[in-house]
Specification:
By secondary structure, the chain is of the alpha/beta class. It is about 35% helix and about 25% strand. The chain has a domain of about 170 residues: Rossmann fold (3-Layer(aba) Sandwich), CATH 3.40.50.
């Protein structure tokens, strides 16, 4: 298997609105893939289609070499997801949440207890393991959602803005964990607006704008393939510069707001 994820002509329409317009994704197995785009570009809709939360209007896909339309349960057994809305149960505790997920995946009781303890410790949630999720802060909920995604030992992780609301210490721990996951052969499909973080973590990039793919490939290839007038391609360009050029974002003059800070 050379690709953990592929789509052909993936399309999703809501009435007259085309949210995803025939994109062809190619995510190499073992890659850390950053999926980027402006707000409203179609990123979250794409992830919902890939993870079975939305049915595509058209197109096809394979995930880990499997057609999810034909074998949806087999795909779900092998992937982990941190969705945009986290999808947690407010009236369960963190430990109950992990127990519920582990039971659904038929994880042996002793192994489930071991994994749950390790994940709660890693996410610094061990002291709140018996607290209701409803009482968690946004950052704590984000860490628990990641723990539930990792619990079954997935081969492919879908992460929709996983670092939003996470403190610096936990962010470093999670970054190291995700790097280790990829080094061991796992694949990560990440969306984030924190371009510096994506640049630090990801080796492959896909950029979507107005529902269409505008670039895709290894980060270093994008550096050498995108240039602006007066600048050689790849000459010290950051991912932010590449991204802004690809999506056609022009710097506009800001209003003075001279009534501020008088």
């Amino acid at each position: 298997m050379t690709h953990a994820l592929q789509t052909q002509g993936l399309r999703r329409v809501f009435g007259d609105v085309v949210a995803v317009d025939g994109i062809d994704l190619a995510v190499p197995a073992g890659s850390f893939y950053g999926f980027l785009g402006p707000n409203g570009a179609g990123k979250s809709t794409t992830i919902k289609c890939l993870t079975g939360l939305l049915k595509p209007s058209d197109g096809s896909m394979t995930i880990l070499g499997i057609n999810p339309a034909e074998h949806p349960v087999e795909v779900k057994r092998r992937v982990g997801v941190v969705p945009e809305d986290l999808a947690l149960f407010d009236r369960l505790t963190a430990l109950e949440t992990l127990t519920f997920v582990g039971t659904a995946y038929h994880i042996d009781r002793a192994e489930l207890q071991r994994r749950s303890a390790e994940l709660l410790d890693l996410m610094t949630l061990q002291d709140a393991a018996d607290s209701l999720v409803a009482d968690y802060s946004h950052g704590m909920r984000k860490k628990l959602a990641l723990a539930t995604a990792l619990l079954p030992g997935p081969e492919l992780l879908f992460l929709d803005e996983p670092f939003e609301g996470i403190d610096a210490v936990a962010s470093r721990q999670i970054r190291n964990l995700l790097k280790s996951f990829v080094e061991r052969g796992g694949t990560i499909f990440l969306t984030s607006h924190i371009l510096e973080l994506v640049e630090r973590l990801c080796d492959h990039i896909g950029v979507i704008a107005n529902g269409r793919m505008v670039a895709q490939g290894p980060l270093e290839e994008l550096r050498h393939g995108v240039a602006v007038e007066g600048d050689a391609a790849g000459a010290g360009r950051t991912l932010e510069q590449i991204f802004l050029d690809l999506v056609g974002a022009e710097e506009s003059e800001l209003p003075s707001l001279d009534w501020l800070a008088r």
